[in-house]
Amino acid sequence: MPTETSISFDSPELLWKVLTAKRWELLKVMVGAGPLALREIARRTGRAVKSVHMDVHALLDAGVIERRAAGFILPYDAVHVDFFLKAG
């Protein structure tokens, strides 16, 4: 049975700062793809390498993706996001 890993953010604002729509698109092309070079991620998303570089490093800093010798990898088979809102 696979081990589940979770990443938490201190506030919803920080979550949205890290997981922008463009970065979510990066995760969508990376899930299950194995290690990918930066240029390949840019090609798959149809974005400029420079923009993808900035987003990849933000995801690296947040611990969402990892850098390996063969490229960048999303080390999870799936991504699940939970939100919890309560009164007060």
Write a concise synopsis of the structure shown.
Helices cover 43% and strands 7% of the residues. With 88 residues, it is mostly helical.
Task: Provide structural commentary.
There is one protein chain. The longest helix has 13 residues. The model has no long low-confidence stretch (mean pLDDT 88). Helix 2 crosses helix 3 and helix 3 crosses helix 4. The protein contains four helices and two strands. The relative contact order is 0.19. It has a domain of 54 residues: Winged helix-like DNA-binding domain superfamily/Winged helix DNA-binding domain (Arc Repressor Mutant, subunit A). It has 88 residues and is mostly helical. A two-stranded antiparallel sheet has the order 1-2.
**Which class best fits the helix and strand makeup?**
mainly alpha
What is CATH's topology name of the domain at 20-73?
Answer: Arc Repressor Mutant, subunit A
- The CATH class designation of the domain at 20-73 is Mainly Alpha
Number of strands: 2
Largest sheet strand order:
1-2
Shape: globular
Distance between the termini: 38 Å
Beta content: 5-15%
Topology as H/E string? Answer: HHHHEE
